[in-house]
Amino acid sequence: MAGPDQVAQHSSEVLGQRKSLGQCPIKMAITGFACAGVIGFLVLYSKKKPEASALDVAKVTAGVAHSDNTHPPK
Known about the structure:
This protein is an all-alpha fold. The protein has helices spanning about 5-15, 25-45, 55-60, 65-70. About 65% of the residues lie in helices and about 0% in strands. The model has no long low-confidence stretch (mean pLDDT about 75).
């Protein structure tokens, strides 16, 4: 078992884990946003109506859809 002086020597090594992430936080945020967008698109695409196209789903995902994209033609 380690003595108190040995514990004090090794404790700084364990606490020294505050290093840089290795990745730019902006790149990680963009990647996370892109992953969330892809997952959202795939969820909406899997639940779409048969008459809706992939472009209609993409417009709804992006939030630029109008009523002609969300309602089937009559």
